[in-house]
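REQUEST
  id: r-88c1
  op: predict_structure
  target: Copper amine oxidase-like N-terminal domain-containing protein
  payload:
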Amino acid sequence: MKKLAAGFLAGAVLMIGTQAIGASTSLVGKTIQAEYTVNVYGKKLADPAVVIDGKSYAPVRAIGELAGYKVSLSGKTISLDDKEAGALPSLADKNAGITMGPVPTLTPDSATAAAKGKIKAIDSKIDTVVDNILSTSSKLKANPDSDGLKDKLEQYKAEYADLLQQKDAELQK
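RESPONSE
  id: r-88c1
  status: 200
  body:
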């Protein structure tokens, strides 16, 4: 009878210990199984996404800041708050006011070719500014106290917003 009671008690202790370990959801100490490149608006982020236990985890700060959110850390909580003034527009902002209608038939003429050339030039400038934003964001991550980098990032964001307005104006013509 004592052996039966001892066996039952040992089994209960092992069962409770196993459940306590299984209930843990922390990723601390887990092995990264893979890394993936993250592209935002066609531009590669400096920080990769990682895969742990079959789930992917993206760099919240880089994506949040690129989308124009204020990213903050308080204790063990990451917050994405109101957009900063002059921040990049979100995808919803970009698509606001777009209406679908019949597709116009384009005829090749010099005005259309000139408009396409202007739009292509603006797109090239946008690519350069996005590269500058990503580069400056990465540098700022390494040196978060640099006021010069913060100012430069805000200038790039303002330039990005201006270029989007220019492109929209050309598309409206």
